[in-house]
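Q: Structure tokens for this one, please.
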Amino acid sequence: MPHFVIDCSEQIIKLKSPQEINQKVYDTAVSTGLFIPEEIKVRINPFQYYITGNTSDHFIHVFGNIMEGRNTEQKAELSKRIVTELKVMFPEVPIISINIRDFERATYCNKSMV
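A: Here is the predicted structure, written as tokens:
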């Protein structure tokens, strides 16, 4: 925990490598101090077929899935930092966004818990 899943247009991974993009999101998440670095997971899904507002503009959207317990200000700062870093990395990309979702501690389960 947490999981950062990056959806993007396929062109994005031609501008920068998937490793560079994943590392940037990872490093930014670490920099917040909200997470144990060894628990952060980042992955990327490039899409060949998509529509963005009835255009084919390139896009990046990050889904941040984190364990409940962080306050709104912490989650907003996390969002702003990640978008800021991606904006610097991809100034030519018109759509860069993120949303943060909380996992419920009571319903979360992983392999080590069973």
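A few notes: The chain has a mean pLDDT of 96. DSSP finds three helices and four strands in the chain.
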